[in-house]
Design a protein that fits this description.
The complex is a heterodimer. Chain A has 2 domains: 4-97, Glucose Oxidase, domain 1 (3-Layer(bba) Sandwich); 105-371, Aldolase class I (TIM Barrel), CATH 3.20.20.70. In chain A, 23% of the residues lie in helices and 20% in strands. Chain A contains 9 helices and 17 strands. Chain A has helices spanning 39-42, 129-142, 162-174, 192-199, 217-224, 229-242, 261-271, 293-296, 304-316; strands spanning 4-6, 8-10, 15-21, 33-37, 53-56, 68-70, 83-87, 92-97, 105-107, 149-153, 179-183, 206-211, 246-252, 277-281, 321-324, 348-349, 366-367. In chain A, the strands form 3 sheets. Chain A has an 8-stranded mixed beta sheet. The radius of gyration of chain A is 23 Å and the shape is globular. By secondary structure, chain B is α/β, with parallel strands linked by helices. The longest helix of chain B has 20 residues, at 305-324. Classes of the chains: A alpha/beta, B alpha/beta. Chains A and B meet through helix 5, helix 6 and helix 7 of A and helix 1, helix 3, helix 4 and helix 20 of B.
């Protein structure tokens, strides 16, 4: 599902965050609302006093007295209650939060200290941390009712420095019952003092999702394209555990990580015994991956042996394992029970042949970009 | 501005130099077995050790990566992660933190059995003479509570403790109250032959959450031969007692232990089947302790360690078959060793620790107030050898017990890292030191490994388990792991019957 659209902006130059409303609301509720109008409505000079902003696919005959964007390319993806950010300079409308989705993300920076070969969200070397923090602090105050889970992602969230702590504290205050999961490379946690300060935030339900790609330092560093990253990540996980911060290990499966996968499992069991969950994830054909596809691609069908051995090894030892981004028709039946429907709603897709599949309801499907590259073994069950 | 990517060579260059981290090694079935300080191991081809020592190992090979990943060596291309290694070693030594957990109270020496292998019982004693007094019990409870451990196990032992049921009735509520006040978790076990158990006693145990541990040496003929009592009905009484205990306390609160006598050696399958028939899910194939009366009666119950090891191996094979058939049955000693070999965790089992578990993990309070470093030390004392008497509840504090000349002398011999024959043994991280055993059998706490029954037993059992691990039969490994998963969710086996 679409995340952004754009139009022509007027009356403002910065960024405005607000809750979409398709119906006229009473004046007292307009402060946080962005009014979404149909072509018809925008041509009828509606009363927009008190709204944070107004947007429409149509044109406003009379310029409203609030910030507005007109002639949007489309608005079908916007629903009442969505939280969006609109940009006065570019006319961009970005969806930040949709209450009806299952997977919620808070995107906190595009900067990163690593540069993984298969990054789905390639980093940018531009300091966006202040602007995004301001946006996200506003966003947190608008989210209602509280979602069960929220993933904080980037880039590398810990590069926000104190701003990350500010976001977590705000989340703890505004949405104390929302479980937080931070996707981080874990390297910053190698500083014991950072891990200690993080733990003093005392968020009631927070965990780190940290990728580890090999038991051998050089191999991991190659995948994340950063020297010394393995040492910092492993040390970071230990510092986190020492400070009672919960840790999940995430492994993206591709041609560089599959050969030592069972040894990585052994390494995790012996060295990172404290991790509460291990996610083994299929490769996403997006971001950097297409550029490095020769180096990375292995048909998931080809690594079922290693995957089965690894999952058995870990579960036998009492560790909790899940498989993400795998289609049931490619997975060995013994592995089905570990497969999770993990793909965000807006990224999810099924192939034409999936339409008649008996297991359609139970399958996680594919990323939308997998249309261009996926296993050769996708077959409907009939 | 797009970033660039760099080649593998930039991140994993061939190291110019590598260094070894501490490990021990041995030849093992045409391979070499390396074991590091944290108990991680690897089987490698013969000749690998030499290549490691002379630096000729191929640093680009998968083997090199395996050795580095398991912290047998480090090189100049990344951090040695010594903190990580230290944490793993510390986890293995968890048992020395937190203070003494197991506290054995010998509430009476009286017993109506006359087992050949028993160390201490007194059948003819007059009532009271060999029972623990209330003042001694009060002091013993105080000393138990002085242990920094937040989890305590109180084991009520004898003789036959049920002959002094009034003493038990005195101790249990007082110990529980003392634990409550100090916010300690307290488990209580009574070790009994069940011959004289009554429903009144069982109801008391149920209400006070006391578990029962009993002796079951095998089928009727063998059990009754090993454990004579007037009427020659020890087996019948034990079985009847087990069933009654289960019905009142629940099956999970009733355990059984066996002792291997000379007569047992030919009947390992029958003994194991007896446990299965009685619906027990664990069995501990235990040799006789060479203490007390067992030493005197060697002509009747003695056998060579080698005979016991054949018994153990045949037994383990039978137990694995039973598991394959779908009945879960754990062999406790193998389970303890497998946990040391295959998991990153330490175990609390007293007899297989270094530093030795005596005093650190167990204290024994005798009926007369004497405090011993272990049950075996108390048995020696009954043979007039007071070497391991740490003190007396009426005179001593926890501090003075642990700094007594007896304790200090024992502690000096309790680390196998520093014992000749152990310090360079590949299996050292899995094994223990046992100064009391070596004092009793060799007259020297440090002991002589080549002639030590303790060494012979553990070497052989560990090697046997390693050969099964090396063969890697997936069905057997699955059985082993099912035992290890159970172990992590329940208490350590009790020290003694």
């Amino acid at each position: 599902m679409r995340l952004t659209t754009s139009g022509v902006s007027s009356n403002f130059s910065g960024e405005i965050v607000g809750i979409v409303t398709t119906d006229q609301v009473d004046a007292e509720f307009r402060g946080q609302r962005i009014r979404l109008l149909s072509t018809d409505e925008s041509s009828r000079e509606p009363d927009l006093t008190g709204y944070r902003a107004a947007i429409s696919v149509g044109e406003f005959l009379q310029h409203p007295n609030v910030p507005f964007i007109q002639r949007l390319r489309e608005t079908e993806h916007l629903r009442d209650g969505d939280i969006i950010a609109i940009n006065g300079k570019t006319g961009f409308v970005r969806s930040l939060y949709r209450p009806y989705e299952h997977h919620h993300h808070m995107f906190v920076t595009e900067r990163c200290s690593s540069n993984c070969l298969m990054c789905s969200q390639p980093p940018k070397d531009k300091d966006d941390t202040e602007a995004l923090t301001k946006r996200n602090l506003e966003l947190i105050d608008m989210i209602a009712p509280h979602p069960r889970y929220m993933t904080i992602t980037g880039g590398e969230p810990t590069l926000l420095g104190d701003n990350l702590f500010a976001l977590i504290l705000q989340l703890k205050e505004a949405l104390p019952d929302t479980e937080l999961h931070i996707l981080t490379n874990g390297r910053t946690f190698a500083w014991g003092e950072y891990a200690r300060q993080f733990s003093t935030l005392h968020h009631p339900n927070i965990s780190l999702g940290i990728p580890l790609y090999s038991d051998f330092a050089g191999d991991h560093d190659f995948v994340v394209q950063a020297r010394g990253a393995f040492d910092q990540t492993v040390a970071g996980m230990h510092q986190a555990a020492r400070n009672d911060i919960r840790v999940e290990v995430r492994v993206v499966l591709h041609k560089l990580t599959v050969p030592r996968l069972t040894k990585l499992a052994e390494y995790i069991y012996r060295n990172l015994t404290f991790v509460e969950h291990i996610a083994l994830m299929g490769l996403e054909y997006v971001g950097y991956t297409p550029r490095n596809i020769e180096m990375l691609w292995i048909d998931p069908f080809e690594y079922q042996d290693q995957l089965e051995t690894t999952v058995e090894y870990l579960t036998e030892r009492g560790m909790t394992v899940s498989l993400y981004n795998h289609q049931l028709c490619v997975l060995r039946p013994s592995l089905w029970k570990y497969s999770k429907k993990s793909i965000s709603d807006w990224k999810n897709l099924y192939l034409p042949e999936c339409a008649n599949c008996r297991e359609f309801e139970n399958c996680g499907g594919l990323f939308q970009w997998a249309v261009r590259k996926h296993s050769d073994h996708i077959r409907p069950f009939s | 501005m797009a970033r660039s990517f760099y080649a593998l060579q930039e991140f994993a260059p061939a190291p110019k130099h590598f260094s070894l981290l501490p490990f021990r090694f041995t030849r093992f079935s045409e391979k070499e077995l390396l074991v590091n300080e944290a108990g991680e191991f690897i089987f490698v081809a013969e000749g690998t050790i030499r290549k490691l020592l002379d630096g000729s190992i191929d640093v680009t090979s998968g083997l090199y990566r395996d050795l580095k990943s398991k912290q047998f060596l480090y090189d100049d291309t990344s951090s040695p992660l010594l903190d990580l290694l230290a944490t793993k070693i510390r986890s293995k030594f968890n048992h020395i933190y937190g203070g003494t957990k197991l506290h054995i109270f010998v509430v009476t020496l009286r017993c109506e059995h006359s087992c050949h292998y028993c160390q201490v019982s007194r059948q003819t004693a007059a009532r009271g003479e060999f029972d623990m007094s209330t003042t001694t019990a009060d002091r013993a409870i105080e000393l138990m509570m002085a242990s920094p451990s937040t989890h305590l196990t109180l084991e009520l032992q004898g003789g036959e403790p049920l002959l002094a049921f009034e003493v038990i009735r005195y101790i249990v509520p007082r110990a529980k109250k003392a634990a409550r006040i100090r916010r300690k978790h307290l488990d209580i076990v009574v070790t009994t032959n069940l011959a004289c158990i009554t429903d009144e006693m069982l109801v008391f145990f149920r209400d006070e959450e006391v578990k029962v541990s009993t002796s079951l040496d095998g089928p009727a003929a063998l059990h009754n031969m090993n454990r004579p009592r007037p009427g020659n009905d020890s087996y019948e009484r034990a079985i009847e007692g087990i069933e009654r205990s289960r019905s009142i306390l629940g099956s999970k609160n009733v355990a059984a232990l066996m002792t291997t006598t000379l007569a047992s050696l030919d009947y390992v399958k029958e003994i194991i089947d007896e446990y299965v028939n009685r619906d027990f899910h664990s069995i501990f194939l235990r040799p006789i302790s060479p203490y007390g009366f067992a030493v005197k009666t060697k002509h009747r119950t003695g056998y060579e360690m080698q005979q016991f090891l054949e018994f153990y191996k045949e037994g383990l094979a039978h137990i694995l078959e039973i598991n394959k058939r779908g009945f879960r049955l754990t062999e406790v000693y193998s389970q303890i060793l497998l946990s040391k070999i295959l998991t990153p965790f330490g175990t609390g089992y007293v007899d297989l620790q270094s530093p030795a578990g005596e005093a650190w993990n167990v204290l024994v309070y005798n009926y007369n107030g004497d405090v011993f470093a272990s049950d075996e030390s108390r048995m020696l004392a009954e043979m007039n050898d007071l070497t391991f008497r740490l003190g007396n509840v009426h005179r001593d504090t926890r501090r003075s017990l642990f700094t007594s000349p007896a304790a200090l002398k024992m502690f000096g011999a309790s680390c196998n890292q520093a014992l000749a024959g152990c310090s360079d043994c590949a299996f050292q991280p899995y094994c223990g030191a046992d100064p009391i055993y070596h004092h009793a059998t060799q007259g020297d706490m440090y002991g002589n490994r080549p002639s030590s029954g303790f060494c012979a037993r553990n070497m052989e059992v560990i090697k046997h388990l390693f050969s099964l691990i090396e063969q890697g039969d997936p069905i057997i490994m699955r059985i082993f792991w099912s035992w290890l998963r159970i172990q992590n969710s329940r208490n350590e086996p009790s020290e003694c019957d």
